Amino acid sequence: MVTYKEIGRYRGYRFGSDGSVWTKQRRGPNPSGKLSDTWKQMTPKPWGKMGYFQVSPLNIENGKHENRMVHTLILEAFRGPRRAGMCARHFPDPDTGNNAIANLQWGTYQQNCEDRERDGNTARGVCNLNSKLSEEAVHEIRAASGRGCVMEMSRKFCVSRTVIWRIRSHRGWTHI
């Protein structure tokens, strides 16, 4: 059975234990601030490439819509505000689309990093969208460690000499 809770500063919004977000706010100009008589389920917008979702509830404290992640709103509604040093975790199911309260908890940054590592979501190597190198290139750079100039390698792979040095000294791309 789905239960619903509200967050005081978001009047006219409620958050479901199944990860749903509902509103009574009217669309379009509403200078009177009157709420609708019926609840309507909101359709969260995808955010980023990791599968997170966001909505833009109206904050009555400042009168502005705020872009907020659904999972943090669900946690705030059911578990209370985030404490200092804590972040939202999708646990035990790493699916970022599963925003049910049973799958969410406040945790430390370290726990979140461990989750990301365990689930294979760490942006390192070719999984990092900014990476210019492949694993084969890293193996080639390390194999040529005793011979060849750092400058030649940096030109060949279009990276800085520092990147070549870090790979050769095993301070970069340490996961392979």
List the helices and strands and how they pair.
Elements: E1 4-5, E2 13-16, E3 21-23, E4 40-41, E5 45-47, E6 52-55, E7 58-59, E8 64-65, E9 68-69, H1 70-79, E10 86-90, E11 104-108, H2 109-118, H3 135-143, H4 150-157, H5 161-168
Number of strands: 11
What is the strand arrangement across the widest sheet? 1-2-3-4
Q: How would you characterize the largest beta sheet?
A: 4 strands, antiparallel
Cα-atom Rg, whole angstroms?
A: 23 Å
Number of domains: 2
Termini Cα gap: 47 Å
CATH class call of the largest domain: Alpha Beta
What assembly state would you assign to the polypeptide chains in this entry?
single chain
- CATH fold group of the largest domain: Homing Intron 3 (I-Ppo) Encoded Endonuclease, Chain A
What portion of residues is helical? 25-40%
CATH architecture of the largest domain: Alpha-Beta Complex
Structural class: alpha+beta
Give the SSE order as H and E letters. EEEEEEEEEHEEHHHH
Mean of the pLDDT scores?
Answer: 87
Number of helices: 5
Low-confidence stretches: none
Q: Which percent range describes the beta-strand content?
A: 15-25%
Task: Estimate the global geometry from the Cα principal axes.
Answer: elongated
